[in-house]
Each structure stands twice: as structure tokens, then as C-alpha cells.
Amino acid sequence: MKTYSALGAAIALAAVPFLVGLNEYYLFLVTLILLYTTIVVAWQLIGGYGGQLDLGAGAYHGLGAVVTGFLMVNYGVSGWVGLLVSGAAAAGVAFLIGYPSFRLGLKEVWYALSSLALVLILQKIFLLWTDVAGPLERYIPYAEFDPVFMRAGTKIFYYYITAALLASTFLIVSRIRRSKTGLYLISIRENEEAAEMLGVDVRRYKLQALMIYSFIAAVTGGIYASMVGFYHPTLFDSWISIQTATLAIVGGLGHLLGPPIVSIILLTVQEYLRITLGAVIIGLHQVIFGIILVVIIMFKPDGLGPLIDSLARRFPASVRR
Amino acid sequence: MDALVLEGISKNFGALAALTNVNMRVQVGEVVGLIGPNGAGKTTLFNIVTGFTKPDRGRVKLFGEDVTGLQPHQIAARGVARTFQIVKPFFGMTVYETVLVGAYLREKDEDNARQRAEVAMKLTGVYHLRNRYARELNTPQLKLVELARSLATQPKLLMLDEIVAGLTPAEVDAMTALVKRIRDEMGVTVLLVEHVMRFVMNISDRVVVLNYGEVIAEGSPSEVSSNLKVIEAYLGGKSGS
Ligand SMILES: Nc1ncnc2c1ncn2[C@@H]1O[C@H](COP(=O)(O)OP(=O)(O)OP(=O)(O)O)[C@@H](O)[C@H]1O
Ligand SMILES: [Mg+2]
Which intervals of the chain form a coiled coil (chain A) (predicted)? Predict the structure, then answer.
């Protein structure tokens, strides 16, 4: 049954470019949606399982864009290498931030705020650091189709890279969820002291979750920079942090299927609203999007995860019969 | 051989002396009861042994090793398990998952960990609850689950903080039998804090009495229960003449 669902998801992901008629603009939007969804899925590790309200996604995403872009622009380094280097850089920053935070026992709103501050701090640093970024956009050399350099004129190239990234992120996260590490992270979320007394090295596991998530968030940033063809410090975007946490919570903390499904749907709605209403009254789409989120949380305080899980359980059973 | 040695432990919370120069030892294989009126410092002593609280002065030794200042997970790795006076359940996890967390301390392999967890659940009588979420359970059940997950870590020293508080007399008797089995069949040393005298006196080889953070008496259950200082402490009187 599982293999059928996986196959179905894979076929659906593969078919999307044709469903949008290979239109470059729509391809750009669906790639964007999948990139943001990937961050939401990775965020489950630290937020959904580890229970830490991390708002650093914008920092790691931005770091991925800047580091990958910088290497492509200045040294002609392949984007693929850039993704790995920027992922490692983000994991390194996550370590530098996470180690003292978890050691000091920063939690809840204090952890949330300090991780959000990272987004703003990195943005300022790269605005001032003109050797690497600075206030001007830096353009990545154009290539009609250069898969080795990871650059192409058509968005479908980036779409498939992103779809593969989302699928692997989902597999990694679901694997961790079923492992000892996943169980340990959830026990930390449920009660840190009790977990610690059962031998769980709370700091180490939180740090591990933070580093894997930040690596993946950076990879999404690198793909983004290569797709749009430039990078700029505004890619350190606190909106991405908030969007990530919000979608993960609305999708259901710690649920496997809820967050990606809800992210894809709501991000699609958001983009639709932006296209249709964004020009009518500036910001109207964000207001409406906000109202949708509030309504969902009012009626389903645990998010849509439980509902989606039970649907997922029922559906295959009825098919089988 | 000593499982636990406390040497000159003192701990102040601001102006309050929660523990003052406490010396104590628990031998391997013993069941030691730690009693004393409310606020005597019993839970504080547990927190110091398990690394949740740092003592102001004194040393903690486990199985001959100085462990003062180690973190709780390091204490757990050295063979100490503990239940909490106010239960600390994993509400969003099933009983099975909860106990499995404990089992993973010494069993790296998933199948072995599962087996270990099942043994602990069967011993404590919560196996039939294995697929229930902790949030669906009542307090006596949660206490048993807490004991099960502690046992799943395969401890050498088990510390129980008021494990029978709030249980019915029949449940207290069952717990007495269970703790005796844990000691006899698994060879686990037990240190327990308790107000329920029927339980402590029935099960302990030795009883230590704390009052206002000081050890005021120590001995066999019958010695301690006839000790005048202990009776005064429990009647709430400050020793007069
Ligand atoms: N973290 C803390 N900060 C300040 N005071 C504390 C703290 N923990 C304990 N105390 C105080 O220290 C004293 C000893 O508390 P402790 O919890 O160890 O007592 P106890 O013997 O376990 O009592 P009980 O039988 O009621 O559980 C009490 O006066 C308590 O109020
Ligand atoms: Mg107490």
C-alpha cells in the first residue's frame, strides 16, 4: 500500500510541469511552492519532533542563496558543490547558535526570538560585507543549459531538482521519525527532564535536529538563487521563518503527511491570492491568507495533521476492499 | 560495596537551607527508605543525586565514582533511574513508545530495545495499556508507566519519589510486592522517599530520617519508628528541652 502511495506521489510530482502546460511562470511558482514546502518538512525535525519553535529558517535559506550564489559568481563553482558547501556552512552556523542556546536552556519564546534575530543579523552582515554580497544584486552567469554548473534557461530544470529534494527530505524525515533519534526528539518535546533522566542527551539531539534542518533549508536557498539568477541580502527573509513555522503548525506538529500537504495547498492558495488580489489592494492577499490560517486554527487547534492522517488511513483500506 | 555515598551535601535556596551537611550511604542490594516531614529536603536530595540540582558543598559518589556535577543523562548512563514525585509523562506518546525511550539507553538494536520494553511493561502490569496514549491514563497508571520506563533503562540503583502517594491500600500492597521483586529478581538497589509508613516500614532494610535538611535519625524500621526525635519531627514540634 505504502509503495502505491509513494508511486502515486512520485507520478503526481513528475506530472505537474505538464499540468501547468510547461508555462515558465507557473513552473517558477510551483517550484517556489515545493522549495518552501521542503523547508516545512525539514522543520518538523526541530519543531515538530524536537519541540523547539525555531524561526531561523530565513537565515539558513538566505545563507544557502548567498553562499551558493557567491561561489557560482566569483569562482565559477558548480551549483551542486555550492549546495553542499552552503548546507555545511548553515549547519556550522546552526551549531554555533544552537550550542550556547541549548546549553543555556533557551526555550519557547526566548528560543524563538533568538533564532529570529539570526535572520536579521545575517541580513545586516551581508549587506555590509560588500566583498561577498552588499546592497546590489549579484548576477549569476547565464547558461542556456549547463547541468554540471546547475544553471538552465528553463524553470523545468529547477522544478525537478526541487521535486527530488522534497522527496528525499520527506524520506529522510520519515526515516528519522521511526528511528531512535526520532523517538528521543519526541520525548524531549513531551518532557525534557523525564527524557534526560532516561538517558537522553537533550542538547545533543536538539543540536542534531537543528543542523540537519538548517542544511536542507540552505539547499533550498541555493536552488532558489540559481533559479532566479541572482542573490541579495533580502533573501535573509523573516517572512520565510514565520511562514515555515505557521505552515508546520497548521499542518499538524509532528505529523508526517499533514505539513507537506497543507503547505502545498496553502502556498498555492497564497500565490493565487497574490496574483489575483495582490495588485488590487497591496497586501490584501496576505490579510486573506492570515484569515484562512486563523480560521483553521480556531476549528482545528492541533492543525490538520490528525485529520489528514485518519483520511490517509481510511482511504487505502477502502481501496483494498 | 556502596551504590551511593553522599558526603557533606549542603544546598541553600536563597536564605533557606534545604540540605545541611548530609552524609548518607546506600549499599548495593539494599532497600533504603528516606522519610521526613513536608519540606524536609527529600526531593532536593534526589535532584542532587540525579544531577538536576548542583550542591553548594559536598560530593556525590555512585558505585565508587565521583559524579558530582554531571548531567542527568550521564547519571542515567551510570545506572541510576528515577521516578518523579509529580509524574512527568510523555502525554503525546503511547505507553509502548514511552517505555521504549528508556530501553534505548542500553539496547542499541531496535528489536532488543522492543523486547526490553515489553519485559518492563509486563513486570509492572502496564502491557495491556501499551497502545494507549499517556494522556488517556489516570495517575496510578502513569506512576506504573514511569516505573516501567525507569526499569527499561536496566538500572542498578532505582530512586522512587513517593511512588505510592495517592494509591489505594490494595495498590500499595501490589507496589510493595513489585518493589520486592525488582530488588530480589533483578538485583536492583532501591532508594525510596515515602510518606506512607505502611509501605516504607514494610519494605525498607534501613530508614534515614531528614528534618529541616538534616539527617536526624537512621536505623532499622523498628528503631526509627520508636525514635523520639522522629516522633517529634512528625508531630511538628521543634525539639524543646
Ligand atoms: N527550586 C527551589 N527553589 C527554592 N526553594 C526550593 C526549591 N526546591 C525546593 N525548595 C524548598 O526546599 C525545601 C525542601 O523541599 P523538598 O521538595 O526537597 O522537600 P520534600 O522533603 O521533598 O517535601 P515533600 O514531602 O513535600 O515532597 C522546601 O522548603 C522547598 O520549598
Ligand atoms: Mg518531595
Answer: none
